[in-house]
Amino acid sequence: MIENVQNISVESLLRYVHDMLFNGYRFITATSVDNGDGTVDVLYHFDKDLEMKHLRITVNKQEEIPSISGIYFGAVLVENEMKELFGLNIKNIVIDYGGHMLLSDDELEAPMARQITIINKDKGGVPQ
Amino acid sequence: MFDMIGNIFKNLGTKPATRCYPLEKREPFKASRGRVKGVEIEKCIFCGICSRKCPADAIRVDRNAKSWEIDPFKCVICGACVEVCPKKCILMDETYTQPSTAKDKLTYIQESKEESQSQAG
Amino acid sequence: MSNKTVIPFGPQHPVLPEPLQLKLVMQDERIVEAIPAIGYVHRGLEKLTETKEFTQNVFVIERICGICSFKHALAYCQGMESLMGIEVPDRARFLRVIWGELHRMHSHLLWLGLLADAFGFESLFMQVWRDREKVMDIMEETAGSRVIISTNQIGGTRRDIAPEMLAKIDSVVNEVKEDVERVEKVFCNDYTVKHRMVGIGVLSKENAKLWGAVGPMARGSGIAEDVRTLGYAAYNELDLEPVVETDGDCYARMKVRLREVYQSVDLIRQAIAKIPDGPIHVPEKGNPNGEVISRVEQPRGEALYYMRANGSKTLDRLRVRTPTFANIPALLKMLPGHQLADVPILILTIDPCISCTER
Question: What is the ipTM of this complex?
Answer without folding.
Answer: 0.81
